Amino acid sequence: MHLQQYEGPLDLLLDLVRKQQINIYDIPIASITAQYLDYMQRAAELDIELSSEFVYMAATLIHLKSRLLLPRDPELDKISPEPDPRAELVERLLEHERFKNAAGMLREKLIIEEATWSNPQIQQLQSETDGPALAVTVFDLVKTFQQVLERAKTRPIYEVGQENLSVPDMIRFLREQFESSRRELLSAGQLFDRQRSRRAIICLFLAILELVRSRAVELAQGEAFGDIALRRGPAFESE
Hints:
Layout (H helix, E strand, L loop, with lengths): L8 H11 L9 H17 L6 H18 L4 H6 L7 H32 L3 H7 L2 H22 L14 H14 L5 E2 H6 L4 H16 L3 E5 L6 E5 L7
Antiparallel strand pairs: 1-3, 2-3
């Protein structure tokens, strides 16, 4: 019996949700929990060792299931409506999916970049589409991102307790920066350096990737190996 391998519990949950075409904002916890536990049982039967993260997620799902099964007083709901217990899990799954999509896009860009160096015929492809041209600037952004993370190791990073920053938060942050600044270009390096936590840095990076993908923001570079700058793209107002 073959059992598909997953990098972590969020990968497994996301796969269960997507394969069944379930609305991620309305996950049937009882059904997903049963399938999740079934996967863990089959892994145990095949002597596949799962990390403690899988066990923790199983406990989280069971806890969510029990909360949803508990009856709520309708009168109490009118006074103090209880937020959906699944909301935090849904946000984690969506953020994980964004990371996976970004990683997949970067892998594709890496293939294009490697082909640029090894295959002279790639120049013909570049003249037919603007995709590879974007790949160069995206990789310059990735290099800037890596440099920021390296610098972050040697400077204080203030991890705010229970920080709940997300990619949409950073998209709003970037829009505010453009609207409040009189400059046409914003330095990506300076924006990264202003973040106070590793999570904020990563969310900002993913937000920039998303805005570049939707053409709301464009990447600019004054000179080779120079600082990466952001400028408004043609779809900025509609983003």
